[in-house]
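User: Could you check the structure of this?
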Amino acid sequence: MTTKTLPLTDLLLDILRTEYGVPDSTDADTGFDTLDFDSLVLLELAVDLSRRFDVEVADDELQAAGTVAAMADLLTSKGVQV
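Assistant: Sure, the predicted structure tokens are below.
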């Protein structure tokens, strides 16, 4: 994770905490498997992120990312800026 993705990482953590009920102790390196995110949750998250940031995000990309930090890198690579 680069310092360029830190604000996005914080925003993503806030989204996950408030809308997906992840614990406050979740950090950028917490794995989605640790959070018990199954394919349905990842699909819902992909749709949510696609709408929020106006980019195409697939659930399999989120599964491959595996962490919030990698998800921020993925979104940054798609041109998302905050």
